[in-house]
Amino acid sequence: MKSLRSILLLLLVFWAILGCNPPKPIADSRTNDYALYDAEGDFHRLSYYNNADAIVLWVQGNGCPIVRNALLDFNSVVKDYAKRNVVFFMLNSNLQDDRAKIAKEASDFGFEVPVLVDSGQWVADALDITLTAEAIVLHPISREVLYRGPINDRLDYESQKDYLGATYLRDALDAILDGSLPKEKQQMARGCKVTRRSALEKNDTITYTRDVAPILANHCVQCHRDGGIAPWSMTDYNTVAGWSAMIKEVLVSKRMPPWKADPEIGAFKNSFALTDSQTRTILRWIEAGVPPGEGDDPLRALPETQDNWEQGEPDLVVTLKEETIPASKLIPYRYQKVALNLTEDKWLRGVEIQPGNPKVVHHVVLTNTETNKQSPITDREARPWTDNYIALGGGADEATFFPENAGVFLPKGTTLTMQLHYTATGKEEKDQTRIGFYFYDEPPTREFYALSPANVNFTIPAFGKNVRLTVADEINRDIKIHYVVPHMHYRGKS
Fold first, then answer.
1. How far apart, in whole angstroms, are the C-alpha atoms of residue 470 and residue 456?
2. What are phi and psi of 417, to 5 degrees?
């Protein structure tokens, strides 16, 4: 009995402690985790700045006289508070200002912080931005608006003062840094009107069948399909509607589609990226309550994925040994040797990789480890998995075919090496990948090599943002000497 009383007393003590200080859920740092490029092309996601004490967005617009006149005041706040762990950005949501125009304005007027380009107006919609020169202070994790209003009271329409009667933004930041909320969250802001797309768009209801499903079919279903590498399949309206909240989250944070190349630099083949208008269509549909529309479901009408070879039956098919993938953990790269059993020299014109279990195959690299010990293009030591590789398969793009009249030389007796990268699905899986080889009937006029500028010796400090990697001198020489298509280089055969 004495022991039982002790246990009950201990439980009462714990209950009293927990009752006085109930545990609180941790805010989801992905909520409103908007991702934008700045005017210089650097990529920013709000969650990159979770370790700050506050995030300040100051709404900028080219040509706005109040913004231009308030720059000195804003730069003064930045100078004093950036060193106190406050992160500052300008935010441009103007339809008329593109990245090049904003960069010129930044140069002409001496902007001291990056300008986030809200070209799709995702942030403008989320925060209902209607004026420039407005400061918005966000909680770094929950994204709650802690202060919204002008920097100070110095500027008004067609007038300004030489002195400050009130320092609204400074007062708000002081309160936040002291661990309390600003006394007043809102003050009357002065600025130039921001034209919103939502005010210009037609009132026609965006529907799944007419507007959204075609976008998903062209950009998402190649991975979000039965047996695909994505964790769920876009098979019908009900499924997509059920995932719509998650779809919004990954679109605004640019986690999906899985494509981070800057859309304003170069033109890319086989890109999954969505345009701003396509993303906006999906987001408007979600905000409108995912209306289904009329007619048959376009996703239900898509043909089932076939295991056919993209370029017809290969000249040679090699089946790899079966691999077992654990249910959940970090999986080191797997390697397999592939003996082609060639009895004569061959010229390769293309390769197609067919994963046996696409759900777990992240990517596959095929290379000749015997011939890539020295780069035939540069005099530096070869990098075995990026230089001189033969083929790469990943996600929905598994075929590599070389440019016209260019090929890879394979001497008889060649043995190739496969690097396989697997991802766990939550249960044990099996995979047995196949490789299809396509040969030239006659030798091509050019020999194909791969060259990849890279730096593998770098350190990312704790909480590092947009860390600049120092590229080795010999790689810079490669870029200056040779014309390099991303990853690929080919030259005339002597």
1. 10
2. -125, 135
The three-class DSSP label of residue 107 is helix
Tokens of 67: 């913004």
Residue 429 is predicted with a pLDDT of 95
Residue 376 tokens, joined: 């035939």
**d(C-alpha 327, C-alpha 275), whole Å:** 36
User: What number of CA atoms fall less than 13 Å from residue 121's CA on the CB side?
Assistant: 21
Q: Which of 31, 25, 34, 54 is nearest to 140 (CA)?
A: 54
Distances (CA, A) of 116 to 128, 191, 378, 391: 16, 18, 39, 37
d(CA 217, CA 229): 15
d(CA 74, CA 114): 13
User: Residue 335 pairs with which residues in a beta bridge?
Assistant: 419
Closest CA to 357 of 293, 307, 309, 317: 307
Cα–Cα nearest to 118, from 90, 148, 140, 146 = 90
The predicted-structure confidence for 383-430, as pLDDT tens digits, reads as follows: 777 777 888 887 667 889 999 999 999 999 999 999 999 999 999 999
- β-bridge mates for residue 91, sequence order: 59, 116
Return d(Cα 77, Cα 88) in angstroms, integer: 9
1-15, 123-137, 396-410, 464-478, range with the lowest pLDDT = 1-15
Per the CB < 8 A criterion, the answer to whether 384 and 372 are in contact is: yes
Q: For the whole model, what pTM was predicted?
A: 0.78
DSSP per residue, 282-327: HHHHHHTT----SSS-TTTTSPPPP---TTSS-SEEEEPPPEEE-S
Q: What is the dihedral of CA 408, 411, 413, 415, to 10 degrees?
A: -30
Q: Please, is 473 exposed, middle or buried when counting C-beta atoms within 10 Å of its C-beta (0-12, 13-18, 19+)?
A: exposed
- Residue 211 DSSP label: I
* The dihedral sign for the CA sequence 52, 56, 57, 62: negative
Phi–psi pair at 449, nearest 5 degrees: -130, 160
- How many angstroms separate the Cα of 302 from the Cα of each of 295, 296, 394, 415, 446? 15, 11, 22, 39, 40
Q: Both tokens of residue 103?
A: 């960069």
CB 106 within 8 A of CB 263: no
The DSSP code for 48 is: G
